[in-house]
Amino acid sequence: MPVDGSTRARVQRMWERLGRACEAAGRDRDEVRLLPVSKLHDVDEIRAVHAALAEVSGDAGPRSYGENHVQEIVAKTARIGPDEGIDFTLIGHLQTNKVNAVLPRIREFQALDSLRLAARLDRRLTELGRTLDVLVEVNTSGERTKHGVGLDEAFGFCEALADYEALDVKGLMTVAVDSPDTARVAACFDALVALRDRLRGRAVLGSTWCELSMGMSGDFPLAIAHGATTVRIGTALFGPRAY
Ligand SMILES: *Cc1c(COP(=O)(O)O)cnc(C)c1O
């Protein structure tokens, strides 16, 4: 896949910013996973970013791309070959009636926020004889417009997930408040860290609880400073989305 100059420059710049953010936070680069978010970008744009990331990172291995909508994942997986090294992670809300359609097409699900959905996923996965990596989405900002389990209920919610053996619960995800006030954004990240520590401290689900997926194009350096282990980056890698 040939990579045009502007894609390469954008990807290179993002890769460098990621390195600087890790350095500034005194963290090892390997501790922070980059999940490129490809929603609303077509498969050729994904291929171009994929090729550019392989160049700048020196890692031509497979990568997962974040998507918000089941229909978009279905359409894109139909056009991407199994040997292209590209697969998808669902980072948006999932309705129970779309579970069967999406399960064969995703590597990971980062937005688990209801026990009804957990039960539905677990049942279908058991039928398929497989497991799925999941993160619990937590609404750390308290905004009504956001999905996610409320901070008050999150601990109990996570405890209840122990009943679903096909769900491999890897950690927590949040979308911070979109605000120029960095203290408010940081408070969202800290709330997720505190919840993770509480879950770990009580050994609720054993030692597999470690992932913190937080930080996007506008706030990833702050998220890394606060302990993010995965950052979800759309605009800074792909350019603006056409709605
Ligand atoms: C779209 C989206 C992102 C990426 O957002 P950018 O600001 O474009 O980096 C990250 N996480 C979630 C849940 C998203 O929906």
Provide a count of the helices.
Answer: 9
- CATH class assignment: Alpha Beta
Alpha-beta content class: alpha/beta
Beta-strand portion reads: 15-25%
Q: Span from first to last CA?
A: 26 Å
> Biggest β-sheet, characterized?
7 strands, parallel
State the CATH topology. Answer: TIM Barrel
Shape: globular
List how many beta strands DSSP finds: 9
Radius of gyration: 18 Å
Overall average residue pLDDT: 95
How much helix is in the residues?
A: 40-55%
Walk me through what this model shows.
- It is a single chain.
- This protein is of the alpha/beta class.
- It has a single domain, classed as TIM Barrel.
- The chain is 42% helix and 19% strand.
- Strands 2, 3, 4, 5, 6, 7 and 8 form a 7-stranded parallel sheet that branches.
- Bound molecules: pyridoxal-5'-phosphate.
- Residues 37, 39, 68, 91-92, 175, 216-218, 232-236 line the site of pyridoxal-5'-phosphate (PLP).
- The modification N6-(pyridoxal phosphate)lysine is found at residue 39.
- Its cofactor is pyridoxal 5'-phosphate.
- Residues 54-240 form the Alanine racemase N-terminal domain.
What is the topological layout?
Blueprint: H1 5-24, E1 33-36, H2 43-57, E2 63-67, H3 70-79, E3 86-90, H4 99-102, E4 106-112, H5 115-128, E5 132-139, E6 149-150, H6 151-160, E7 167-173, H7 182-201, E8 211-213, H8 220-225, E9 230-233, H9 235-238
Parallel strand pairs: 1-9, 2-3, 3-4, 4-5, 5-6, 5-7, 7-8
The chain binds pyridoxal-5'-phosphate (PLP).
